[in-house]
Design goal:
By secondary structure, the chain is an alpha/beta fold. The protein has two domains: about 250 residues, 3-Layer(aba) Sandwich (Aspartate Aminotransferase, domain 2), CATH 3.40.640; about 140 residues, Alpha-Beta Complex (Aspartate Aminotransferase, domain 1), CATH 3.90.1150. The chain is about 40% helix and about 15% strand. The chain contains 15 helices and twelve strands. The strands form two sheets. Strands 1-7-6-5-4-2-3 form a seven-stranded mixed sheet, with helices on both faces. Strands 8-9-12-11-10 form a five-stranded mixed sheet. The termini are far apart. Bound molecules: pyridoxal-5'-phosphate. Pyridoxal-5'-phosphate binds next to α4.
Length: about 400
């Protein structure tokens, strides 16, 4: 069965009411027929559920669908994307271990690597994502885990996943990919050689700005220690969020196709625009890694990053003149979102770190929504004209 079909049709067993839509199992615990049944459940000798911190039918369904989409065996759901990242690192690493990571990671992931893990004797080396020599020299026999995002946010740089996976496996390190920006619809890191895939389901997986959630998927052997850690320490996903996110996966394929079509069309329009000096989008032939993008992604994703003529003043003027996009601290929504990274999402970075991450005062990131492309272009056109008029 086609993966998209599975993400639509794959459903847990129905209850005696034969409901069409999956019911929500808002229960903290599950019951047994007898003391012997309870004993067998706790001994792992009987199939079923015990307690929703361990597992719940709604999270089981969500995990099954994500595993199908990502080509993985098993997974675990978490309260947020950060819980997925933190618990994966905490479960797999111990004092004395070494981690290598891309400098172009989500800020809170960098914070964990730079400020939390070192307190526990875990060292981290940060690498410029595009510098292959730096990756080669940083990954050593001591390296246990490598963490990347590709494409990156907001500069939309890529890393060659099969190439990096080989470097990791030469020293028995796990390659962990935060696949948040691509989604499994356009990139499946596991099939490209990565070991563990993480999602902030808050973004495109939900896709409608409603809930926080995280998912980690991988092989049975890689997921077991992460599942055991989360089961005991409690960063689990609520059944309600699992139910909602599982329903969201039924529309993920069509949503992502439309996000990508709209994003490519906007990127092409921006490329021709006299008030825009640079457009970053992986499926534009002008993208420096266009060939790699075509190899490991089936579409360019829903984010487009532009540099406009001028600086912060002009960027703010553009943002304030737009009538359709929303100014908010999220991405991956049905509704287009506009962000000025230098003054918001990436404002905690030093000036130098911002520049290294490709963030200028004139940089604006657009998370392209599902609105009519004609309406979006018209809105950007009227707003861009305001830059020229002052
Ligand atoms: N990973 C990436 C790439 C993100 O952009 C984010 C949030 O923006 C996260 C992880 C964290 O996810 P959450 O906000 O669900 O904790």
């Amino acid at each position: 069965m086609n993966k998209s079909t599975s993400s639509i049709r794959e459903q847990m067993a129905r209850t005696q009411y034969r409901e069409h839509s999956t019911p929500m199992f808002l229960t903290s615990s599950f019951t047994y027929d007898s003391a012997e049944h309870a004993q067998a459940m706790f001994a792992g000798e009987s199939e079923g559920y015990i307690y929703s911190r361990f597992s719940n039918p709604n999270s089981t369904e969500l995990i099954a669908k994500m595993c199908t989409l990502e080509g993985c065996d098993n997974g675990v759901t978490t309260a947020s994307g950060m819980a997925a990242i933190f618990n994966t690192l905490a479960a797999l690493l111990k004092a004395g271990d070494h981690v290598v990571a891309s400098k172009a990671l989500f800020g809170n992931s960098l914070y964990i690597l730079q400020h939390i893990l070192p307190q526990w004797g875990i060292k981290c080396t940060l690498v410029d994502i595009g510098n292959k020599d730096m990756w080669e020299s940083s990954i050593t026999e001591a390296t246990k885990l490598v963490l990347i995002e590709t494409p990156t946010n907001p500069s939309l740089e890529l890393i060659d996943i099969p190439w990096l996976a080989e470097r990791c496996h030469n020293v028995d390190a796990k390659l962990v990919v935060d696949n948040c920006f691509a989604t499994p619809i356009i990139q499946q890191p596991k099939t490209l050689g990565a070991d563990i895939i993480i999602h902030s389901a808050t973004k495109w997986i939900d896709g409608q700005g409603r809930v926080l959630g995280g998912i980690v998927v991988g092989s049975e052997a890689d997921i077991t220690p992460i599942y055991d850690f989360i089961r005991r320490t409690g960063a689990c996903m609520s059944p309600f969020h699992a139910w909602l996110l599982s329903k969201s996966l039924e529309t993920l394929d069509v949503r992502i196709q439309r996000h990508c079509e709209n994003a490519l069309a906007l990127a092409q329009y921006f490329e021709q625009h006299k008030y825009i000096t640079n457009v970053r989008y992986p499926f534009l032939s002008s993208h420096p890694q266009y060939d790699l993008a075509r190899q490991q992604m089936s579409a360019g994703g829903g984010l487009v990053t532009i540099d406009i003529q001028g600086g912060q003043e002009e960027a703010f003027r553009l943002i304030n003149a737009l009538t359709i996009p929303t100014i908010t601290a999220n991405l991956g929504d049905t509704r287009t979102i506009i962000t000025h990274p230098a003054s918001t999402t990436h404002s905690k970075l030093s000036r130098e770190a911002q520049q290294e991450a490709g963030i200028l005062d004139a940089t604006v990131r657009i998370s392209v929504g599902l609105e009519g492309i004609g309406d979006l272009k018209q809105d950007f056109e009227q707003a861009l004209q305001k830059i020229g008029k002052q």
